[in-house]
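Re: Re: ligand-bound prediction request (bumping)

Still looking for help on this. To restate: I need the protein modeled with flavin mononucleotide bound, output as structure tokens. Inputs repeated here so nobody has to scroll up.
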Amino acid sequence: MKQILITVILCATALIALRIAVPKPEAKHSVLEAIHARRSIREYKTTPVEREKLLTVAKAGIAAPNAMNRQAWAVRIVDSKEWIDSCTAAFVESVKGTPLGDHLLTDSFRNMFRNAPAVVFVAAEPSAYAGVDCGILGQNIMLSAYELGLGTCCLGSPVGFMNSEKGTKFLADLNLPEGYQLQFAIAIGYADQSPEAKPRDESKIAFVE
Ligand SMILES: Cc1cc2nc3c(=O)[nH]c(=O)nc-3n(C[C@H](O)[C@H](O)[C@H](O)COP(=O)(O)O)c2cc1C
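Reply:
Sorry for the wait, this slipped through. Here it is.
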């Protein structure tokens, strides 16, 4: 009887130790799951995004690896509807009647950030590594947003406008460090669509023997 009791206690102790030492298998797979389930979202609910969540994704962004840990980047979060609408009005004025305008100004158009209630701008000091640093930062933002139940869309199209004469005021509002250049924006909000995955060409991957 005593021997059985000791065996049970030993087994229970071993199990507890194992639970502490070995991470849950789900935790191991969550990053991969997020990578494959993320989609570019272009329709959003009008529900505002909690600032705590915006800060969480921004912090995940700057946790990214970056060349020599110089962190020569800047992240600006805008969740003001007034700012987004006013920037959009100036943008619409500048693209009306152009091919870009024809492409973007459809019936579903609500704002230039793919109708998102918030947008994260990513800028960097120009350098050979700026694109890589900011790209990784951006993916960290998008994957962590996915984990928090938010949709995102990386946007290159606002950059041209923000760097143009009509966009000067809006670029200035971002208060970027001297010499920094806007790299891209990330639309962020609660998704109002569930797009299918866009196929990827696996022939782009090859082992080198
Ligand atoms: C650098 C960059 C710029 C992009 N610019 C835009 C854009 O201006 N407008 C847009 O709707 N999507 C933009 N996208 C999103 C891509 O169209 C999208 O990632 C691609 O079609 C693959 O779809 P998925 O993200 O759903 O997998 C951009 C993505 C990247 C990485």
